[in-house]
Each structure stands twice: as C-alpha cells, then as structure tokens.
Design brief:
With about 140 residues, the chain is mostly helical. The chain contains five helices and no strands. Helix 3 packs across helix 4 and helix 4 packs antiparallel against helix 5. The relative contact order is 0.20. The mean pLDDT is about 90.
Length: about 140
C-alpha cells in the first residue's frame, strides 16, 4: 500500500520545521543555552546545517504524512487526530528514545537532551498539525 500524501502539506510542513528551529534556537528563546551546553558557536558552520535542516525537515514531513495516512486508513476517525497521535508515537519511539540514548552515552548535559527532544516534539506537532489540517491528497481535513 502506498499512502496518500498531500504534497502541498509536506512542503508547508517543511517550511514550518525551519520556522520552529529558527525560533527555538534564537538567543532570546533557547539559542544561548543550547550553544553553551552543546559547546558550539552559532553561525560557525555556514549554510550546511541549514541545507541539512531543510532536507531532513522534508523527509520528516513526508514520513509523518505517510504514517498519518496509514494510521488514518487503519483506525478511521479524524485525520487531524490521527496525525497528532502518530507524531507523538513516532517522536517518542524514534526521535526522543534515540536522542536520549545517544546523549547518555556521550555524557551530554541533561538540559541539552531535554532542549533537543523538546524542540523535536514541537517540530513533530507542528508538522502533524499542518498535515492533519491539510488532509489527504487535497481532500481537506477528515
């Protein structure tokens, strides 16, 4: 089964991942804390992280759209609700679990781990909200 994907929603969700990251990591929000705990100087890496972020934002949005469509076909009900629940399950089981594991082996500060998984949760929910509101293949939210 190939899931139905609303590609416009995926593009809009990709842009949202950039907006969430840009806001989350601005110095007035969590950028200063992140830079200190991660031991990095912002803007040292040029455009490479931004390009990587756009590509991974697209892949994450695409996978979440497909996963939400599969969940919706399986469970029925609200596509928005299925999108949000699917995003939380994927975030917890894949993203948060892996970040926590890697950060504990790398002895990273707990605050940095919480900051990272918090950012990922907000990003996943933003993607899910957009995917859920757009609906499947332009049909509108179900």
């Amino acid at each position: 089964m190939v899931p139905e994907i609303n590609w416009l929603a995926v593009i809009v969700a990709t842009v949202a991942t950039i907006a969430v990251g840009s806001t989350w990591y601005t110095p007035k929000v969590f950028g200063t804390i992140w830079a200190k705990d991660a031991r990095v100087r912002p803007h040292d890496n040029g455009w490479v992280p931004i390009i990587v972020g756009v590509v991974t934002g697209f892949v994450t949005s695409w996978v979440l759209a497909g996963s939400a469509a599969i969940a919706h076909h399986f469970y029925g009900g609200s596509f928005l609700g299925n999108s949000l629940v699917t995003s939380i399950i994927l975030w917890a089981g894949l993203t948060a679990a892996r970040v926590i594991t890697h950060d504990s082996f790398e002895n990273r500060p707990r605050r940095l781990t919480l900051l990272t998984i918090g950012h990922e949760l907000v990003t996943f929910l933003a993607i899910a909200l957009i995917i859920g509101l757009f609906g499947i293949s332009g049909d509108g939210a179900a």
